[in-house]
Amino acid sequence: MRETWVAGAAMNRFGKMAETGREAGARVALEALDRAGVEPKRLGLTIVSNAFGIAEHQAHVGPLLNTALGIPEVPSFTVESACSSSSAALHEAFVHVAGGFSEAVLVVGFEKLSHLDTLAATSYFATGADYTFESQNGATFPGLYATIANAHSQKYGTTPEQLGAVAVKNHANGARNPHAHFQKEISLATYLASPMVASPLRLYDCCPFSDGAAAVVVVAREALPRPAAEPLVIRASARAGDIGDIHDRESLTSLSATRRAADAAFQRAGIERREVQFLEVHDCFTIAEIVALEDLGFFPAGAAAKAGADGTTARDGRLPVNPSGGLKAKGHPVSASGAAQVVEVFEQMNALAGTRQVPHAEVALTHNVGATGSSCSVHLFSRR
Amino acid sequence: MNEETAPAVHSIAAYVHGYAEEKRLLGFRSGCGFVSATWGLLCPRCGKRDLKEVTLSGRGRVAALTVQTVPAEEFVNDAPYAYVVVELEEGGRITGWIPGVRGPEELFIGAAVAWVSSYRPGLQFELRSSSPEDAG
Ligand SMILES: CC(C)(COP(=O)(O)OP(=O)(O)OC[C@H]1O[C@@H](n2cnc3c(N)ncnc32)[C@H](O)[C@@H]1OP(=O)(O)O)[C@@H](O)C(=O)NCCC(=O)NCCS
Ligand SMILES: [Zn+2]
After folding, report:
1. What are the DSSP calls for A170-223, one per residue?
2. Which of A14, A48, A200, B6 keeps 20 to 30 A from A112, CA to CA?
């Protein structure tokens, strides 16, 4: 395997887009390519993620994107893995480049859903769960994660205030991120006063429905002698799967796909957990950040809930988690989220993160979950 | 087809027909002991083929719960309602909804519940114990 980099990465402001997903995808792709100093003509492949493209009556969007970028001859395909779609696409790009099949691969993830109302969007999202054995029995996505939160609090005593601390922290980070859907701080009191969505999860426990686009340019080191920006070395790209339905899994309080992807990534990278300086983890709901930190091996089971409240995971804490604001505040345009995590790592490692810059940005981890944990990607990055 | 390669158990259509029309909840028990209603050909826990079709009791205890204020689209006229993960008497878990539950204080982990037939697709449960004390 040859050394493989993220040479450029870019995203738009998440929230509500006035343009189509395909326009936004092409714009962030060009920005990522420009940041990398790579001309579109040099791409060997484009991998697109757009899980809910059907909401825009559009499938097979790769060729449209390549046409817009002036490279209709370049092959493309779509990778769908629910909320982990674009990190799965990044994994495929890594495989192509590290394996020597391409010199440069473009990964683009985007989603436009804001024209749907709450119920329709909730129904679209529920298709990522098991329709017959979960959704048809009444579950929504917030509801499924709510059962994890309920079981976690029964087992470990996780409190509403501890869930709230994750929301408060991530909103504080999002307030400093010009890409974020929500750029406002919230207090614990605001959190506790927000309406229930699926007990114990309140409005401020949930990521929002967001539109957005993010792109990552993956290149072989030898193909880019003079990178235009500080590249991220992909030290490991690992994926794992699990039983689709939460209730059929052995544990209701832990995602084994996260554990297995993380173990594989650390082993391949030859990096220790204590070397990781900041993380972007999948916090589609506050409980998901807590469970992720336990499953990734940074805290023992039941011990991560304290980390938000005591400042450990704050931007200036011992282990900054989701300096971007996470899915909670930055927003969660499903297929853009995995790539957007990498944009945050790119901006942090290139000292482009402005007032949300973390103190040390040489080694970072991204963690992206599909659905309720049936798919998971873990990537480890370091500076050269 | 021999025993080893015969597709396990019933179809999804038979499962749905079973609970909706025959008051019968179809599931499987794997050689490793894993019990589930979720359709499959091989056991997702041990990867083996020895699944036996079983009729599930539909009776058990709440293992995890949520009360959803924002409903799934098909449940728009039923919100709020509970969505529960149920640990069956015979082992294994299934999920379903309980109408008329307005808040998490009306339900608890360990509550006895039973599957009941419903006017709509999906598994519906009925609460059998009203407080943690009489749940035993
Ligand atoms: C929580 C949820 C039900 C809210 O629904 P919604 O349709 O976005 O809510 P509304 O449009 O009625 O928004 C009401 C207000 O709350 C704000 N808001 C919406 N979602 C929010 C969130 N998650 N966090 C904070 N504020 C939120 C809106 O901006 C709006 O504010 P305004 O009145 O000042 O404009 C919805 O965001 C949701 O289901 N999120 C989870 C999405 C999901 O499951 N993703 C997959 C995860 S793997
Ligand atoms: Zn088995």
Report:
1. HHHHHTT-TT-S------HHHHHHSPEEETTEEGGGBPPB-BEEEEEEEEEGGG
2. A200
